[in-house]
Amino acid sequence: MEIFDILESNERLSQFHGEALYDLDLFTLGKYAQKSRLKRYGNKTFFNSNRHINPTNICADVCKFCAFSANRKNPNPYIMTHEEILHAVKEATKNGAKEIHIVSAHHPDAGVSWYMDIFKKIKQAFPSLHVKAMTAAEVDYLARRYDYSYDEILDMMEKNGVDSMPGGGAEIFDEGVRSRICKGKVSSKGWLKIHQKWHERGHKSNATMLFGHVESRAHRIDHMIRLRELQDKTGGFNAFIPLVYQRENNYLKVERFMGSQEILKTMAISRLMLDNIPHIKAYWATSTINLALIAQEFGADDLDGTIQKESIQSAAGAQSAGGLKLKDFTDLITTSGFIPVERDSLYNEIKQY
Question: Alpha-carbon dihedral of residues 83, 89, 91, 96, nearest 10 degrees?
């Protein structure tokens, strides 16, 4: 069956078809991805008012793509106190944040209670604030480091006020690629198992894919299909977030970097492959705000949020350290021809601008 026949009939795309999509020209891909996006959401572009907090950059793992963790290219280790974190949360809420997004490095000595107590303290002080925290990689690390099961860590997260999980740590699921870029980190099987367990508890999460480094197009499609298969079982993913690899200050030797066309093709293919994941997020902190806005015409419908402060991507060269002001954010969306819609962390609409 011809690829165009499958696209026209909205049949589910296979690994073979997904790889074939890359051979289409960008605007043809965009046409089909945008057709799906418009059918779902019209001209709405979603965002939330959020604050990213990264409590420590001291990490037991050495991922070659990472510029955030403290090492000889980033010789400035830090760990925030709970008081410092709570102060940051308080200031964020004053600036309108409705979600706190907490992702840390894998600190070898902080202990499980250091993580769990801060979630509890945030929830006690700000009960209406949505706490998105703990990647599957963090869950896996804490379980291995302190001899807990995944279930025990997830139970503690639930008990201490974590509302949803971010999608980080997925990178690329192919284990050959993982052994090259993040050896020792959570396996692809472990990542998927943790998210499945979280979904089975009735909670939502996101899913990411880091692309543009040493992976192939086939690896990207395989990654999407594995997510699609889990989503068929649980329905627990809110959004898929293709993260553009940032090239500075790390140890991964990448000779050829992607252009904008490859990024937009991957965004569009994500929308077409992931027929059961509601939202495709063009995370502006990795793609730049301008390209993320263009991606809204290639199947993406979400930009993440105002962020306020960002440390992980900006350490590797992204221009995202200071976030974006709400008015600047909504003005950029409007002038791009879309309707800015502020959402909560679970994609309930709060306000149209």
Answer: -170
